Amino acid sequence: MPISMLLAAPLAAYAKFAPSPAKNFESMILPNTAHLYKAPCLPESMAGEETLAAVPIMTSDYFDEFEIGGQKQTSVPFVRTPDSQFADLAKNGFPYQPNYIEVEGLKMHYIDETGPVDSPTPDTPQATYLFLHGQPTWSYLYRKMIATLLKYPVRVIAVDLIGMGRSDKPIDLSFHKYETHVRFVKKFIQSSQHFNKSPGISGSKTGYPLKHLTSFGQDWGSVIIMRVIADIPDHFDRSVIGNGGLIHSAPSPVPKAVFDPTDGEPKPFNCNDTRTPLEMFAEWFGVSADNAGNTSGPAFAVWSNYAMTSPFFEPSEFVYGLYVIVLSQLPNIGNATVTSSGGGFVGLGRHAEQSLGQDEVNMYDIPFPTIYHKAGPRMLPSMWPAMVADPDVMAANTEAWEKLGKFEKPWMQLAGEFDTIYGTVALQQHNIQHIPGAQVHNVEHKRFANSGHYLQEHEGEDIAEHIWQFVQMTPTQF
């Protein structure tokens, strides 16, 4: 959809949970972030003053835990992606009704679906699955896993982090702190706004927090959900981590953040950076072959800087880049074919089923139609060094890690063979050896040979079946 058509979309799309529009956008954000939305290399429609009036900027009057420069804010400016952006979801594998829960005056989006209803019995244990994505994706990433699990009598919930997907999107980079996302996910789980849609229970009644969860977290979703599990363990029956882990100790030296949301000065857009994402990846992996998986090293800094400062950053291109790099390395596949119009990324030979069509690729961009909508995906990589540099956060994560060292409920640790950051054997074993529940339930901690960082895209159906079998092996009492 042309940007002019998007900006002219009826405000009716914003009706539900709509706070009052901000009267003065410039006064609602920090002076040191205002310039990030004005750069000569941005598309013309996004560079001028007229855009401030064209994109509806709203404020939440209930947000009371947000600080800028030590000053507590009573509201936060944000944008909301119009529903019209998501018109093609159903024909691209995501035909699910959107649901929203209000948390601190902002709405969090999630899908909440059930498979064929069948009363739970000891022979067919049921589960409520909670999926949490990472950077720079949204719940659409789980479409293959969701469709596979819905063949069974289960409940599947996939939530969008604030700033991502169909959730509200604060425009100030300072909003996106690790502790903020942890707090929002905990409040989402504990909310009384949920419907009771557990398998075997007829009807839907409001007023139920989420219980008996089998969680799955990947990338930042894993870092967040592991902390949440440690903080509110009674809400979980099992946990699955795919390419991830809890960051519970700071590296030495602590890496410098591109933007520290506590007191840092964000870098402006680099209008001279004309690299494509694939060129960025080539630099990333070429910085140091031995250091490619080190999130405190120079390779990770390449990605953090690119996401923050490139005016041409599109979330989808990061997903495609890692996807096609994996395909190019699979045995018996040759080089992956990259087409620029309509074809997406297509694998060859026996891995031809691992094609990712251009229409599917586009779905990763539709939540982020303007630069205002991209604060979340731009900030998340820089959230990592800011997190490890905060002694209070690291103390909380250390305590959470100690709690997980006593967590005896079933735990499964999965990994994609080609993920050199969060899918390494060392990280997988680090979690398995520390968490008792990963050791005592005869769990197969599988490594998926044809997958990379986004293992949900490469082998989502197989992963879902593997998790389903995990649930069958570890029944709980309902």
Which helices and strands appear, and what pairs or packs with what?
Blueprint (H helix, E strand, L loop, with lengths): L2 H5 L17 H4 L2 H4 L9 H4 L2 H5 L3 E3 L5 E3 L2 E3 L2 E4 L19 E5 L2 E9 L13 E5 L10 H7 L5 E5 L9 E2 L7 H13 L22 E6 L1 H12 L4 E7 L34 H11 L10 H12 L5 H15 L7 E2 L6 E2 L11 H5 L12 H14 L2 H14 L6 E6 L8 H10 L12 E2 L6 H19 L5
Parallel strand pairs: 7-8, 7-10, 10-11, 11-14, 14-15
Antiparallel strand pairs: 1-4, 2-3, 4-9, 5-6, 6-8, 12-13
Explain what you see.
This protein has an eight-stranded mixed sheet, with helices on both faces. The chain has helices at 3-7, 25-28, 31-34, 44-47, 50-54, 143-149, 178-190, 220-231, 277-287, 298-309, 315-329, 358-362, 375-388, 391-404, 425-434, 455-473; strands spanning 58-60, 66-68, 71-73, 76-79, 99-103, 106-114, 128-132, 155-159, 169-170, 213-218, 236-242, 337-338, 345-346, 411-416, 447-448. The protein has 478 residues and is of the alpha/beta class. The chain folds into two domains: 3-250 and 386-473, Rossmann fold (3-Layer(aba) Sandwich), CATH 3.40.50; 277-385, no CATH class. The protein contains 16 helices and 15 strands. Helix 6 (143-149) runs parallel beside helix 16. The model is unreliable at 1-33, 44-53, 121-125, 199-205, 287-296 and 332-353 (pLDDT under 50).
